[in-house]
Amino acid sequence: MSMASADLSAILGLKESMRGANLMASLEQGFPVSALERVSHLISPAEPNFKYQIVSKATLARRKSSHRPLTTEESDRVARLALIWELALDLWGNEPDTREFLFKPHAMLGGKSPIDAALQSSVGAGMVEGIIGRAKYGSAA
Predict the structure, then answer these.
(1) How far apart, in whole angstroms, are the C-alpha atoms of residue 66 and residue 33?
(2) Which of 51, 68, 90, 115 has the most crowded Cβ, counting Cβ within 10 A?
């Protein structure tokens, strides 16, 4: 991941000391459900059902009732979105403009929104990171 692990840990609501290999180990063991709740609220606070695009409603209910962490795949998706959020927020400087970018269809993503591309795959997330990087460093976006 291209941003500091400490920043990602804070966005996820994980221990501040969790960096590098410790963050990766935490992802492999599964983030707590609270990380999903936190990231989905940051990205889409007005849409309480946004989290179900990351983890299905039934699966999330099971995780909560059994007090089990997210799977590695679910945790990876949450981390991917947290990274995209942090990079976009750093570029746009405020949450409303960041959300507008994330949810607006983008020509470089074949008309998909950056959030949809990032949710779909790590390749899509990489493409979104590239768009943000080009915009930040002066290339066409």
Answers:
(1) 11
(2) 115
